[in-house]
Backbone:
């Protein structure tokens, strides 16, 4: 298919994915916030069965929100549900995955230096990782382990680490990261579909019939929605991680992914405790410190001081390397891509010099460029570029 058409589909679906994702996570954040800020209501509200209320100001006016302890006596005429935010985020996510990583498997998913697999095999492995994880999670939720929150959480983290590692052996670094994100997203959307919505439907049915709702449903939904709360920040991190090759492109990218999932899930713990009336801001501070410490640990080693004796790498040889390995995607008229990728053109000496620090970041500190090493750059060539940059990146 024409590259421009694929790019256009990618743009439209990504735009929709971000919009629906903002709606889903936004609503979820908002309700966590509501729960955490409810106050003891006045007696007349308590008499109606209201367990907590709060006042807020937003946009053009005051809002009075009340949460029932159990349920209102009579069903209101209009009840707003929150499910399509989750479903459409998942649907657009799978579509985007298909356009970018499955249709474009040769470019984005397959890394022949790791596994020389066909497009069909790559897609089969990708989809199995998503749906297989969903099935495993659903099974795990039905075991007695579901009664032990912390153990369950640790098992999920170990599983995510194992998947990050396993997929990193087969897929491109980005492909592996994105599949871990997508499997978390699939489990989360599944939680809405399989547990949270049925529980809400049962609750509504009970209130309509005037019978007492079965607490079993509520407990199940609570368990799953707690998982979703912990999973949100790891998921959001993975979705933006593709802009940061220092994470996915690192030699231990899978371990970094596991560490960031742990740290960001831990940060969410602050809000969960707050809901139980426990204030521990130290958790946020500690998570932020851990995050920064991780960035320090994974920082690339400063380039070795240039030995005065090292022969000078000429710009002519650098230019040849760039022409052979980069220009196919980075020029006014690239041959492998429809337009200059990432807005980077490397077809003029001054531009190569200008981009030298980013060349360092993307082709030397990490091997993220050339994309999927499609132009088969060698380690010696990377070393020459590194030396040229450390000698001052001169173009004359
Ligand atoms: C097969 C196509 C392809 C080849 C070959 C390629 N790139 Fe890229 N490059 C991309 C794409 C796609 C992006 C934009 C997405 C992104 O930033 O990851 C990009 C973005 C970049 C960026 C800009 C992002 C930033 O970090 O500021 C730099 C710099 C870069 N490439 C350097 C290189 C260098 C150096 C080479 C050759 C050693 C190279 N690329 C070869 C596809 C390619």
Residues:
């Amino acid at each position: 298919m024409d590259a421009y058409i694929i790019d256009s589909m990618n743009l439209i679906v990504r735009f929709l994915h971000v919009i629906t994702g903002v709606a889903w996570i936004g609503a979820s954040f908002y309700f966590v916030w509501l729960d955490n800020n409810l106050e003891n209501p006045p007696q007349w509200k308590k008499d109606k069965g209201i367990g907590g209320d709060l006042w807020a100001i937003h946009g053009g006016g005051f809002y009075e929100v009340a949460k029932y302890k159990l349920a209102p006596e009579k069903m209101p005429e209009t009840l707003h549900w929150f499910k399509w935010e989750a479903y459409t985020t998942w649907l657009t996510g799978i579509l985007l995955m298909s356009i970018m990583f499955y249709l474009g498997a040769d470019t984005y998913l397959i890394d022949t230096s790791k596994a020389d697999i066909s497009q069909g095999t790559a897609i089969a492995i990708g989809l199995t990782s998503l749906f297989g994880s969903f099935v495993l999670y659903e099974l795990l939720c039905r075991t007695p382990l579901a009664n032990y929150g912390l153990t369950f959480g640790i098992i999920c983290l170990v599983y995510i680490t194992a998947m990050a590692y396993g997929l990193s052996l087969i897929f491109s670094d980005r492909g592996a990261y994105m599949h871990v994100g997508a499997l978390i997203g699939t489990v989360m959307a599944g939680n809405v579909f399989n547990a949270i919505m049925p529980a809400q439907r049962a609750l509504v049915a009970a209130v309509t019939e005037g019978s007492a709702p079965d607490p079993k449903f509520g407990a199940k939904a609570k368990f799953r929605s707690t998982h979703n709360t912990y999973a949100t920040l790891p998921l959001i991190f993975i979705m933006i991680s593709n802009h940061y090759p220092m994470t996915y492109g690192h030699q231990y990218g899978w371990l970094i992914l596991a560490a960031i999932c742990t740290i960001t899930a831990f940060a969410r713990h602050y809000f969960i405790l707050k809901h139980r009336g426990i204030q521990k801001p130290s958790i946020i501070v500690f998570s932020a410190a851990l995050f920064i410490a991780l960035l320090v640990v994974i920082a690339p080693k400063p380039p070795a001081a240039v030995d005065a004796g090292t022969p000078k790498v000429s710009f002519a040889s650098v230019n040849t390397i760039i022409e052979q390995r980069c220009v196919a995607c980075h020029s006014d008229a690239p041959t492998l891509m429809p337009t200059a990728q990432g807005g980077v053109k490397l077809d003029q000496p001054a531009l190569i010099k200008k981009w030298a620090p980013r060349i360092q970041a993307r082709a030397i500190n990490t091997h993220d460029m050339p994309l999927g090493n499609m132009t088969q750059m060698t380690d010696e060539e990377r070393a020459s570029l590194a030396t040229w940059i450390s000698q001052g990146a001169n173009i004359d």
Summary: The pocket of heme C is lined by residues 325-326, 328-330, 336-337, 341-342, 344, 355, 358-359, 361-363, 369-371, 374-375, 377 (CB under 6 Å).
